[in-house]
Amino acid sequence: MIEQKAACPGCGRPNSAELCGDCLQWQKQVGFVLENRGLFYYDAGFRQWIEGYKFTGDYRLRGAFTAELNQALKNYRDYLICPMPLSKERFATRGFNQVSGCLELTKPAYHFLLERKELAPQSGKTRAERLKMEQPFTLKVSKEKIRNQRVLLVDDVYTTGRTLVHGAELLYQNGVETVKTLTFAR
Fold first, then answer.
1. How many CA atoms lie within 13 A of 142 on its CB side?
2. What is the pLDDT of residues 135-158, one digit of tens each?
3. Around 134, how many Cα atoms within 13 Å sit in the side-chain half-sphere?
4. What region does 139 belong to: left with phi over 0, alpha with psi -120 to 50, or beta?
5. Is 158 helix (H, G, I), strand (E, B) or coil?
6. What's the angle, vertex CA 6, arms to CA 8 and CA 16, rounded to 5?
7. DSSP output for 73-134
8. Using CA atoms, how far apart are residues 132 and 125, in angstroms rounded to an integer?
9. How high is the pLDDT of residue 95?
10. What's the CA angle centered on 73, arms 173 and 33, to 5 degrees?
11. Is a pLDDT exceeding 70 seen at residue 87?
12. Which of 89, 102, 123, 166 is the most exposed place for a label (fewest CB within 10 A)?
C-alpha cells in the first residue's frame, strides 16, 4: 500500500510529499488540485490483477482488496461516493464497471452521478492524447441532488489525472462543494 504521508497531496504519487510538477500544472490549468488517495502501487502485481479482472473479465477478482477499500472509505463517510462511469459501449463489451464491481462489496452506498459519452478508451492513448481529451462526462442527476455536497470520485488507476479532473470540473461547475478522489492504484 502507498504510504499517504510520503505521497503527493494532490495526485497521490508515491515518494513525493509535496505537490508534484503535474499537480502544479493542473492547478495552473484548471484552478484546483485533486486530493487523490491511491491505495496501491501500479506494479507488476497490480497490473496482473487488473488484466485478469478488467481486461479478461474475471469478475471473481473484484474482492481482492475489499478490506483495504473499506478501510479507506471510512475517511469519506460524509461524501457521496461516485464510481467513474464507463461509456455504454465499453460497458456492453466488458459486461461490468470495474470500479462499481469492487464498491459493491463495500459497506457505503455509491451513486452514479456522471455519465460518460461514447469516446475511444483511454488505455490505448498516449499521455499527450489523454491530456488533450475533451470533457467526456455529462451530469446524470439533477444539480439539486449534488449542490453543496461532498463527492468522492473512485477510479481504478490514476494515470495522468485527466479523467478525474474532468469529473471534478463538471461537479464543481454544478455546485458541488468539495471533490476528492480515490484510486485503486497510482
1. 2
2. 999 999 999 999 999 999 999 999
3. 6
4. beta
5. coil
6. 40
7. HGGGTTSEEEEPPPPHHHHHHHSS-HHHHHHTTSSS-----EEE-S---GGGS-HHHHHT--
8. 10
9. 94
10. 35
11. yes
12. 123
Q: What single-letter DSSP state applies at residue 183?
A: E
Beta-carbon contacts of 143 under 8 Å, excluding residues fewer than 6 positions away, are 174, 175
Separation of alpha carbons 153 and 163, rounded Å: 10
Cell triple for 71: 478501510
The model's pLDDT over 125-137, given as tens digits with 9 standing for 90+, comes to 676 776 677 899 9
Burial class (CB in 10 A: 0-12, 13-18, 19+), 174: middle
In residues, how long is the chain?
186
Amino acid occupying residue 119 = L
Residue 15 φ/ψ region, left for φ over 0, alpha for ψ in the -120 to 50 degree band, beta for the rest: left
Per-domain boundaries in the chain = 4-185
| H or E stretch at 146 | helix 143-146
